[in-house]
Amino acid sequence: MTSKVYPDAAASLEGLLFQGMTIMAGGFGLCGVPENLILALRNSGVMDLTVIGNNVGCDNHGMWHVLTNGQIKKVLASYVGENKVLEQLYMNGGIEIEFNPQGTLAERIRAGGAGIPAFYTRTGYGTAVAEGKETRQFQGEWHVMETGLTADLSLVKAWKGDTEGNLVYRKTARNFNPMIATAGNVTVAEVEELVQPGELEPDQIHTPGIFVQRIFKGTQYVKYIERLTTRPRQAAAAGEAH
To answer: For the chain, which domains are there?
Structure first.
């Protein structure tokens, strides 16, 4: 049986990339971002990408590196804040963005991974999100038809994984990574800790290894804080006095 384990991000992407492909990438803000894979994607120089994910990174982090390298032509995302490069590209006509309500995007990815071609949702009806889409009434309420999403390649980040590709995510990293792992024709996972089969508690596995074709242990992870907010010390002290 061929091993799913690769030595690093660049090796794990070898033979998978081509111009004009569609890539899904996990992450929610700065949590659960496949950092090593994104840098390897940037270094590959592959062009005309369509990227699907909750966001496109923020300044100097995540998919921002691929964006600033001019490799992305279209984005399907929910949250596009904290990214000045994306803002300028969009305003100047340099990139196409398909905006999605966050829950709708998550369900479109989940549906694609489950083989569901389309579904109806009330979210977005009567707004710009529904323009050009089929609408239908159910039980007196109008709904918008949304299509499921799949990709040529899914890139995900997990806390732990075993050599068979079983994955365990940690906290906020579960927001998009699990469904993205199911929706790619090929899924590559990077993990903070790589263990042997049997070392993960079966009931704690979030993504079964059948969905993952390649896996490697990432390096140099830093837990960034997207926006640090603290109370002034005097206000904190006054609050404690009460």
So the answer is: 9-217 (3.40.1080.10)
